[in-house]
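Objective 1b. Sequence-to-structure analysis of CRM domain-containing protein.
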Amino acid sequence: MQLRGKQKRFLRAQANHLQPLFAVGKNGLTPAWVAQLTGALEHRELIKVNLLQNTSVDVTEVKDYIEAHSEIQVVQTIGRVLVLFKPASKPQFQDLSIQVAKL
């Protein structure tokens, strides 16, 4: 599912009050880290990721890695913070994805 502009705007508004749940540190990007992101998104659908000061990667590298190795979509990048979205597969966790589909 490719997000349109109106859908991204809605998700950015929903993510405004969220705090980052994950961080990219000195260990960098690994498949296990992406698997943890996917697991968290199955329950929440929308999360923020923070890049720590000691990381050797930048925001565009993280964005490209996430989108290449998973079905997660990067909704927004602000400084060293990324907003990620993935529709949940279980109906009980699909609050945001139902609202996004209506837009």
